[in-house]
Amino acid sequence: MDFISTFQSGGFSMYILLICFIMVLVIAGERYKYYKSVKVNNEDFIEQLKIILKQKNWKYAMELCKSDESLISAVAETGIESLINKKANISAAIEARSAVVIANLKRNLNFLDTMVMIAPIIGLLGTVLNIMASLNEKVEQTSGIGVIIAGALSSTAFGLFIAASSIVILSYFNYRLEKMTNEIGEISNMLNSQTLKNDEK
Q1: How far is residue 137's CA from residue 161's CA, in Å, rounded to a whole number?
Q2: What angle do CA 123, 129, 131 make, to 5 degrees?
Q3: Cβ count near 99 (within 10 Å)
Q4: CB 31 within 8 A of CB 173
Q5: Alpha-carbon distance 159 to 101, whole Å?
Q6: By the 8 A CB rule, do 148 and 139 touch?
Q7: pTM for the whole thing?
Q8: Residues 135-160: tens digit of each pLDDT
Q9: DSSP label at 69?
């Protein structure tokens, strides 16, 4: 009951913030489900691919990529296919595939970044509007003013809570994104080095 009273005392901005918080949770759940479906620890795959590329066994390399079924292997498969078909601009093919993979990993994360900035502002705006509204009313006791201000500040507190939650969630996904981006970069360098060796011949 106290929670409901505190929530209602925050005014209309609390409902806006509640919608924002629900959206943060929905996006966090969707991203977690997506990232969970994607292989994160690709060290074994990368090490195996290094050995195979040194042996220039392109057929086995393709089989390894297809059997792995990860985002990293999809990038590698694009590069190896370009090597097999002796395409002129292999780097461009790898970069194009990498861009699609990274874009999928980043999807909706910008909303969390926006919530970090906008949630405290909405909360603060709600507090200011509530205090302004209370000043237009006659409050006979000093304690009454304290209750009104405490209720008004609840919107600021909720806004800060949403921002803090968004930061934690965003940091987690950015960590995983950076890890996968580095692995994609490593794969790209490996395949580009093979291209240079072929060009030298």
Answers
A1: 29
A2: 105
A3: 12
A4: yes
A5: 33
A6: yes
A7: 0.78
A8: 666 555 555 566 567 667 888 899 99
A9: -
